[in-house]
Specification:
The structure holds two protein chains of two kinds. Chain A is globular and about 65 Å long. In chain A, the strands form six sheets. Chain A has a nine-stranded mixed sheet, with helices on both faces. A four-stranded antiparallel sheet of chain A has the order 10-11-12-15. In chain A, strands 20-19-18-23 form a four-stranded mixed sheet. Chain A is α/β, with parallel strands linked by helices. The longest helix of chain A is centred in the N-terminal third of the chain and has 22 residues. Chain A starts with 6 loop residues before the first helix and ends in a 7-residue tail after the last strand. Chain A is built from eleven helices and 23 strands. In chain A, helix 2 packs across helix 3 and helix 5 crosses helix 6. The mean pLDDT of chain A is 93. In chain A, strand 6, helix 9 and strand 7 form a beta-alpha-beta unit. By secondary structure, chain B is an alpha+beta fold. Chain B has two domains: 67 residues, 2-Layer Sandwich (VC0802-like); 73 residues, 2-Layer Sandwich (VC0802-like). Chain B contains five helices and seven strands; from the N terminus they run E-H-E-E-H-E-H-E-E-H-E-H. In chain B, strands 1, 2, 3, 4, 5, 6 and 7 form a seven-stranded antiparallel sheet that branches. The mean pLDDT of chain B is 89. The chains are: A alpha/beta, B alpha+beta. Bound molecules: zinc ion. The site of zinc ion (ZN) has 6 residues of chain A, from loops.
Chain lengths: 435, 143
């Protein structure tokens, strides 16, 4: 049986969803025009006034906003309400340059909590559950988001924050946690510990909500097997609220975007052109219910696909795929968009490591792509026939994922050039930009 | 009664195999037998050494990718058709030999051969019943 946190919203008709979006978009555009000088200027430069935006059909007229814009506006440049109305900030973990600070009113937090509550209920959560939140608490949105969602839907919340594995396992067993919320890599680690320490019989976990980083289907199956749970994906960005922008349902074939709060678009990252559903491109979000920090057409740089097929869970909101890569990493080889992350996924799924390098070259007018990947102990065997068969599998997996043929070359460990400890990902010898 | 083989990954470039051999040599690991299987891109170096533990330590320190595989070492009767006798036994019992290579022995009159099969126990049983003598780990160290 399906449970929903807000059934009438989550299963609303497409017409109803569109009506909410039309009304809320118009309101948000007026709100930022009236309160944020940055938006007013940008819209004026684009020759758009709030009256030009009558609904979602006019969304494409609005200019995009990027992460660089957010950094430039640090700290108050995009604040759309009086600071006195704000009750909290969160911030991105930027490794370079200025951070991005997002502001929240109490209403913003309430709506964000609703989104996370929907995710927990979609993962099978009820009031009877014990939700162990081991995302970091603090400036990061992970802990606060799932914590808020868990409170909203009335489960018992264990606000563990990240780290201290012994304590995590102690509470997991002693307090009978049933839903685990953390990053997929930490979930993998915990799963391994549970197996190693023989705790599987003592845990009561039934599902997990794992997000904030990329993970593969292989990882999902591994975590599900080791912990005996269903593992669900969740998506979000601090810039547009935090986790819960989209979440997976029982079908586990993509994440429903909370369209009553966010309008999603897919664009061509090079031209900015809006692409139809089903096409791969950069994900762009417009938040339409935010008071403190609304963003119009925010370019996430995540590459994904939107699909509107009917979902068996009964939810009607559009689904997004797992992000397949970053738009800034995109390569165009033989006219096909290639993302290093797609290649990485294939290598990881085949037992190799992420120590790889993509070499793109052009002979005459033909592009070629070669993937050099370091041999790993898991992949190695003393049988030549097995190794060549495994190598062929990678070539055919790459062909089906990328749509083009790539040469694979397995090299010795540590033989790929590194920069600050990380393998240099892409070498493009085509000199495409040489005047 | 199997023996341990060290299987090493090496890129097909000049000096690829040399690096490994040199590392083992400078750690006083003696190579008793060696075979190379390669493709255009890479090779697998298979070694029988006198001291597997030391070889493991050296290769680990060297950052080399390797594995230790149990293989069957047999003493091939030193007469015409000696090896054929061993292979016939395998074929008759439908044991697939993945690869094999010979072994140099300085003393004695036997030739040694390493066999890589899927099921070592089964192969050993058949060989022993067929009157073929096996090589032990001790004998290799003493060679
Ligand atoms: Zn669904």
């Amino acid at each position: 049986m399906q449970n929903y946190y807000q059934k009438e919203i989550e299963t609303a008709s497409p017409e109803q969803i569109r009506a909410w979006q039309d009304e809320r978009l118009v309101k948000t555009v007026h709100h930022v025009w009236d309160n944020v000088e940055f938006y007013r200027k940008r819209m004026e430069e684009a020759g758009v006034t709030p009256n030009d935006i009558q609904g979602v059909k006019d969304l494409h007229k609005l200019p995009f906003i990027t992460k660089d814009d957010l950094r430039e506006c640090y700290p108050y440049g995009l604040l759309a309400t009086d600071l006195n109305n704000c009750v909290r900030i969160h911030s991105t973990s930027g490794t370079t340059g200025k951070r991005v600070v997002a502001f929240y009113t109490q209403n913003d937090i309430d709506l964000w909590d609703d989104c996370c509550a929907r995710a927990i209920v979609a993962a099978g959560g009820t009031e009877e559950d014990v939700v162990q939140v081991c995302y970091g608490y603090g400036l990061f949105t992970g802990g606060a988001g799932l914590d808020g969602g868990s409170h909203k839907m009335g489960a018992l919340t264990l606000p563990m924050s990240s780290g201290n594995t012994d304590r995590q396992l102690m509470f997991m067993t002693d307090l009978g946690a049933t839903i685990l919320c953390c990053t997929p890599s930490y979930a993998s680690y915990l799963a391994e510990c549970v197996v190693e320490r023989g705790l599987k019989d003592q845990i009561k976990l039934k599902s997990g909500i794992f997000g904030a980083e990329a993970w593969t289907e292989e990882m999902r199956h591994d975590i599900e097997d080791k912990l005996g749970i269903k593992a669900f994906d969740i998506y979000g960005l601090t810039e547009i609220s935090g986790p819960g922008v989209a979440f997976e349902c029982s079908e586990q074939t993509g994440m429903h975007i909370n369209e009553d709060h966010f309008i999603a678009e897919i664009i061509n990252p090079v031209t900015g052109e809006v692409l139809p559903d089903g096409e791969k491109g950069e994900l762009v979000f417009t938040s339409i219910t935010k008071e403190a920090f609304p963003l119009l057409r925010y370019r996430t740089r995540d590459i994904a696909v939107l699909t509107r097929k009917k979902c068996s869970c009964g939810r009607t909101h559009v689904k997004m795929s797992k992000p397949m890569g970053r738009s800034d990493d995109m390569l165009i080889v033989k006219g096909v968009n290639v993302f290093p992350s797609q290649i990485e996924m294939v290598l990881l799924n085949n037992g190799l490591t992420s120590n790889y390098q993509i070499i793109v070259d052009r002979k005459g007018h033909t592009d070629s792509i070669e993937i050099r990947v370091e041999m790993s102990p898991d992949f190695f065997t003393d049988k030549l026939s097995e190794l060549t068969a495994k190598e062929k599998d990678i070539v055919s997996d790459l062909k089906s994922v990328l749509g083009i043929y790539a040469v694979v070359r397995i090299v010795e460990p540590k033989s790929i050039e590194r920069s600050e400890g990380k393998a240099i990902r892409v070498i493009d010898r085509r000199n495409l930009y040489q005047n | 009664m199997t023996i341990k083989q060290v299987s090493v990954f090496a890129e097909n470039r000049s000096g690829g195999i040399l690096d490994v051999i040199q590392a083992l040599g400078s750690a006083q690991v003696d190579i008793r037998a060696l075979s190379v299987a390669d493709t255009q891109g890479f090779g697998i170096l298979r070694l029988i050494v006198d001291n597997v533990d030391r070889a493991k330590a050296v290769l680990t320190e060297n950052g080399t990718i390797f594995s230790i595989t149990d293989v069957v070492g047999v003493k091939v009767p030193d007469c015409p058709g000696g090896l054929a006798q061993v292979l016939t036994l395998m074929a008759d019992h439908e044991i697939n030999v993945e690869y094999l290579y010979a072994f140099v022995s300085v003393s004695g009159s036997s030739a040694y051969v390493v066999l890589r099969v899927q099921d070592n126990d089964e192969a050993i049983r058949i060989l022993t019943e067929g009157g073929i003598e096996l090589v032990t780990e001790d004998e290799i160290q003493a060679l």
